[in-house]
Structures are given as C-alpha cells and as structure tokens.
Amino acid sequence: MAPVGGTAVQDNVALAEIELCGELIIAASAARERLSLESIDEVLRVAEERSRAQ
Question: For residues 21, 38, 47 and 50, what is the CA-based torsion angle, rounded to 10 degrees?
Fold first, then answer.
C-alpha cells in the first residue's frame, strides 16, 4: 500500500522513458508496416541526443 501524506517521489528519468515508450507505441500503431530502425530512431529522437552529446 502506498504511503499517505504526500510523500510521492518523482523520477524524471522514468517519466521520460515512459513518454518515449508511449510515443513509440503510437507510431507503431499508426504504421501500416513494421517500423524501420530509422523510424524508431526518429521517434525516439536518437539523432537529437547524439548531437547534444557532441
């Protein structure tokens, strides 16, 4: 049972992962065929993360 009294902890990394998974599920359900690796990278914004890391 969850503690009572407003002791909720927010895990920003977990929330970001959940959001990305949701976006990937939406893209996959809208696609007519399996998503290509490039499409998956686009949905997950892999290129953006790579450019930030450099």
Answer: 90
Predicted TM-score (pTM) above 0.70: no
Nearest-angstrom CA–CA distance, 24 and 1? 31
Mind listing the pLDDT tens digit for each residue in 11-47?
A: 899 999 999 999 999 999 999 999 999 999 999 888 8
15 is written with which tokens? 């929330």
DSSP secondary structure of 1-54: -PPSSS-----HHHHHHHHHHHHHHHHHHH-SSPPPHHHHHHHTTHHHHHHHH-
Q: How many CB atoms lie within 10 A of CB 8?
A: 7
